[in-house]
Amino acid sequence: MSVPMFERGNDMKLTVGSISAFPSNLSVCYLETRSTTYACVVQKTQVHTVNWDNKNESVSWDSINISDTSTDKPVNVLQAAFVLPNARTLPLLVVGTMCGAQIFDIRTQKLLQRQNIDIGLDEPDDSSFWNSFCRGISCNDNTILIGTSFGHIIQFLCTGETSISSKKCLKVEFCFDSLIVCCRFLRSTAHRLQLHITCVYIRLVSLALGYLMTAAERWSGHHTAEVEHSASIADITTCRYDEITCSGDCSGTIIVWSKNIKGVQLKIATQHPITVMNILRKQVIVGTVRGRVLFYSVSGGELMAEVCAHARSVTCISVAPESAYVLTGSEDGRFIVYKLHTRKPQAYQVEYRFSDELPNCAIMGAQFTNGRGSNIAVACFDHNAIYGYRIVKKASV
């Protein structure tokens, strides 16, 4: 009988509350210089944070109440994540809410920077409060990225331990020679923009120049228009080793950004409703609502592998770069560990290694707690603990 790859380890119980039913509702950041692991989960208007040492002997919990800075009223949180910009020694806590994005210092719990989601919307309406949200959190070098329900990507620049500034949002842009019109641009007699969400049908009218052009996604020829995300951002992920950043939206579009996040390197149309993403060895790994896990090449956009992994929506994907392990979790209560083989002359392969099912549980987050993939943390909806797994050490002969 073969020995399983992982075994149950120590569980960490929340001091108060439980875990909400949001995808990617567990973020882990391992600080090798201090041999400390940080993690956080979301519950309604609170973010629960925890840190522990390598031996799990010193476990410390804390909670942060999130409120709308304009009204001081509690606001619902959809995602919280730890990011570690190169300019910092300790990770930052980034929170995505229904009102916007907030960044906290994890040590002092001080709010360092915030930005409302309606920044850049020239015509906010009453309904935007009910259908707006921020989710999809990542960090490239010192640039912190947060996705929005409008397809925009909020940017912050970290230049020091406490120095964080807002940058211009990444938006959908349409270029017509010198004419640049952004999504939700203020209508005037000179320029009008209609956006039909059902088929991403765009009509740009320039009365001043006398042009009328129509397109579905992209104009070719002298006058060009480029559409990045026309649907709500589902997730944003970055590979720190290869400096690759990808963003995906609910319609199935993946954007591979250039290293400086100023241009689009590649656009992939998956035709699948995306829930979560991650990157490993220049492969963008996509989880879908239907439980499938897709592997796309970042360089060419080819679909390299497809795994019918879960019976319900995929809620989390984690990678261990040092060992090429991939971890997926789902609402079906099961998490699976794979080994990704991409090195030639070996054939491209997604190799199954381990899985476990938590009965009567809906997994909202499953993460490797270090780059080797030797430990796993799992968070489940309406449970008051983070469950731990550790790799089984081979017995010495």
TrEMBL record:
Location of the WD repeat-containing protein 54 beta-propeller domain: 214-387
Coiled-coil ranges per UniProt: none
InterPro entries assigned to the protein according to its UniProt record, in alphabetical order: WD40/YVTN_repeat-like_dom_sf, WD40_repeat_dom_sf, WD40_rpt, WD_repeat_EMAP, WDR54_beta_prop
Gene Ontology CC: axoneme; motile cilium
PROSITE patterns for this protein: WD_REPEATS_2
Annotated localization: Cell projection, Cilium, Flagellum; Cytoplasm
Sequence ranges of the WD repeats: 307-348
Keywords on record: Cell projection, Cilium, Cytoplasm, Flagellum, Repeat, WD repeat
Domain of life of the organism encoding this protein: Eukaryota
Main location as per UniProt: other
Keyword flag Glycoprotein: no
Annotated family: Belongs to the CFAP52 family.
Subunit structure: Microtubule inner protein component of sperm flagellar doublet microtubules. Interacts with BRCA2. Interacts with the CCT chaperonin complex. Interacts with HSP70. Interacts with AK8. Interacts with CFAP45. Interacts with DNAI1. Interacts with IQDC.
Record function comment: Microtubule inner protein (MIP) part of the dynein-decorated doublet microtubules (DMTs) in cilia axoneme. Important for proper ciliary and flagellar beating. May act in cooperation with CFAP45 and axonemal dynein subunit DNAH11. May play a role in cell growth and/or survival.
Protein name: Cilia- and flagella-associated protein 52
Annotated source species: Ancylostoma ceylanicum
